[in-house]
Design a protein that fits this description.
The structure is a homotetramer. Chain A has about 240 residues and is α/β, with parallel strands linked by helices. Chain A is about 20% helix and about 30% strand. The first copy, chain A, has helices at about 15-20, 20-25, 30-40, 80-95, 105-115, 210-220; strands at about 5-10, 45-50, 65-70, 95-100, 120-130, 145-155, 165-175, 180-185, 190-195, 230-235. A nine-stranded mixed sheet of chain A has the order 2-1-3-4-9-8-7-5-6. The longest helix of chain A is centred in the middle third of the chain and has 13 residues, at about 80-95. At the A-B interface, strand 5 of A face strand 5 of B.
Chain lengths: ~240, ~240, ~240, ~240
């Protein structure tokens, strides 16, 4: 039923190799845990990581990507500006982008938002409850009205993003904060979804409901086969004068 | 590729029978011209008209409708309030609604908008050009950047609707006006698309590009299989006190 | 510095007279507690209540009102439809409307929204924290980043409203829910602000920060002196044909 | 009645000195023509131009600016990146920005939008009609429902910007195009207004109605005195565990 898409899952892939606690949760890396359910859904999935040449995004990879997932945290600054500009160009052409958790501070997300993307945070093993505030949105298809995560990092408002064009999920945290956790944006012909959970020291991406949100977001962010608008100096369709 | 949907095309069906000029353009009624390409696309389409019992929307018709198209003009007042309330309830539950042209003044559209839905108009055989302002939106998939209609009625701003959640098409008219012609709204779990062209004295719904817009809108407005939110008095998921 | 506005505070004024606990908190009625800081700010404030003739909104009252505040709860159904239609017409002309707490279920708010406006609720003496998600919005001028209320009724998502055009406040509740608590809408030439707190058994409207939000909302919702758009049949500014 | 604001009008100031036709229309430069009505309205206005040291924006100028107007065209690339970053930071803190006409391609506007900001254009001495699509918006206070400009450059859709948070004006062009001509955005605590007209070879900024739009936009974009949100690692207001 789902259209098969060409999906690229990008991961910084540092924590998993340097922190044994993270490595135990994501032994093949966050990217493989994210890729597995997307492969099962029938998508054509490849992965790419920071330390590969061109961060794994060289050659035709971006041109052949319908939807790009992005997880990064401690090494945002190491991502080459040239790659960031190519990703931005592809999004404006129609490629979907799913920015995951700490990708709020990635170069590509900040460039597409135009804001600082700063927020509050705390790692305190606290409960998070994600409430659906847009029932009927394709990204929450098949979900209950709330997703509970027993332990997650807290992200709190004010989250310095442009107002999302569609706000889908809002998080409650045990410590007293709220957060706009599922946010849709359109830039050029491309669609962007920011989804909050996924701190590396918790098994969040093994959670079936979180996998469901991400799978739905991939389908929602798929490029639409539309005429590319002509721009620049243009003849008038009507006679003038 | 398209999911088959249960579509109901509702038409006032008065002009076609009282005005021979309209009858020549739409001999089986506007509803049949609208229904034909949707049937070809594989949808399960039925039609309903004002003068049928319960306006053709009685029994289980609405419950078994995924997307409802609505064309009305001179007899808005004859639509029973009880049916209007049932349509509204179904939209809030997730049924899609495509409001066509003069349906801007229908009871159901005004009820869902909360505004007067008033506008400027003029019938002067003038050119309309509909420009895509949201390339990448599923409703403009496969379309060129502009649709030209040689002769249409003019509708002009200010169109008294709430700001559309997504503005997809803006019309230019030969006489000097502009109009927000393709407008997306969400109400409850349902999606609403207003699309401007379609005055009964012009063959607009025979135009393949207009049929394409409507077909895309039907797919976009399809209900999402989501949990119905629980409402009313609720126990707390967290202990209090 | 603030422009003096003609403000009408409408209150159902039933709980205060039938429930001694409420009467102790609001001895003159919720309307007088709401009116006092608006008078201090220099506005020209009158009050109106359900049991007055025409609910206190007859004659020229609505025509002479720049911003209307509305508090109702148990007697929504007793508000005359004719008055509701007149309020709606005035909002479309530019009058501001501040819908307070249980006014989410008032006839006028539901009519302007086009949705059920339903939600979750619970009275359990729990903490509410309202977080600012739109710093820089005039409605949060002079406020801290968060307002804490020691005891309030809970309202929880999904709140069945159209997506707010600007989302200003999001509430956290001790029991585990979140809520879109400060929501801006525009309908016609008028502005509407929904603000959540204010259950009658708690002294919420005596809280200076809540008074600040309401005072800011009144200023934000003031009518703008704009040309009324011409509608109906219109001559073309450009020659046709 | 208007609050006096500290306004800085920035202009590239090259066309006026190199093209005698432009110099005749704006003998003191576009900036002085823009500044004059703002001074008359009681604002504290200074001007700054590209060829001054630090483009006239060094020292405390930006810190002491409430609203910045920006006109640039042929020399966008000469604006120093460091200044662009400082302007962005000030907008996120709350400074208003009015981007005028060809400033759609300025570094600062593109950075705040995250998109290409590309469009169609044509210089053909054609008529433009700007229609108000948001009556009741403060930016159109005191305006008629339409502004006519006898001769202007054409800008046409698709204009590659994020969907404006409020769309206020839509242009009709004689040659057959439409354009979203008055667009509101919020970034961080700051407000941005893009306003289309103002090609240097036409006397557009001498037009009283265009001056009115710009004056209203300056008032609308004024910073709000709000608490700056705390960000980064945060203690929980509620006890955890």
């Amino acid at each position: 039923m789902t259209t098969a898409l060409r999906v690229t899952v990008w991961n910084e892939f540092r924590h998993e190799r340097s922190n044994p606690a993270v490595g135990r949760i994501y032994p093949e890396g966050v990217h493989e845990t994210l890729a597995a359910p997307l492969r099962e859904a029938g998508h054509q999935v490849r992965t790419a990581t920071l330390d590969e040449p061109a961060h794994g995004l060289g050659g035709a990879v971006l041109d052949e990507t319908d939807v790009l997932l992005w997880w990064g945290h401690q090494a945002h600054a190491e991502v080459a500006d040239e790659i960031v500009l190519r990703i931005q160009a592809r999004v404006l052409e129609g490629m979907g982008l799913i920015a995951l958790h700490s990708a709020h501070f990635s170069k590509i997300f900040k460039r597409l938002m135009g804001t600082s993307c700063d927020l509050k945070w705390r790692v305190a093993d606290e409960r998070e409850r994600l409430w659906v505030v847009a029932p009927g949105h394709p990204i929450v298809a098949g979900l209950p009205e709330r997703i509970d995560l027993e332990r997650e990092e807290m992200y709190g408002e004010h989250f310095d993003i442009p107002a999302p064009e569609e706000l889908v999920l809002v998080s409650w945290f045990q410590g007293g904060e709220v957060f706009r956790s599922g946010c849709c944006f359109r830039r050029g012909a491309g669609r962007i979804f920011y989804v909050r959970p996924g701190h590396e020291t918790y098994p969040t991406y093994h959670q079936p409901l979180i996998q469901k949100v991400i799978g739905n977001a991939v389908a929602w962010a798929a490029p639409v086969d539309a005429a590319r608008p002509r721009r620049g100096r243009s003849e008038s369709p009507e006679p003038i004068g």
